[in-house]
Design goal:
mainly alpha; 2 helices; about 70 residues
């Protein structure tokens, strides 16, 4: 198992948060358009949820374990 680099995790976390915000904007834009494709919106929302899960895992990895 490779050691976890906190700087690398922070960089990846920032990338995921940016992509998550971008998807928010894209979804809002598509939903505002009456002729938008519902399937595309569903796919974007699913991707957004996956990103949210990845962000949560990375945030958890950055928190040091407390000794019992």
């Amino acid at each position: 198992m490779q050691p976890v680099d906190p700087a690398e995790l922070s960089r990846k976390l920032a990338e995921l948060r940016l992509e998550h915000r971008d998807l928010d904007t894209a979804i809002a834009t598509l939903q505002a358009n009456i002729t938008s494709d519902e399937l595309t919106i569903k796919r974007l929302k699913k991707r957004k949820l996956l990103l949210k899960d990845q962000i949560a895992r990375l945030e958890s990895a950055l928190i040091p374990d407390e000794p019992a």
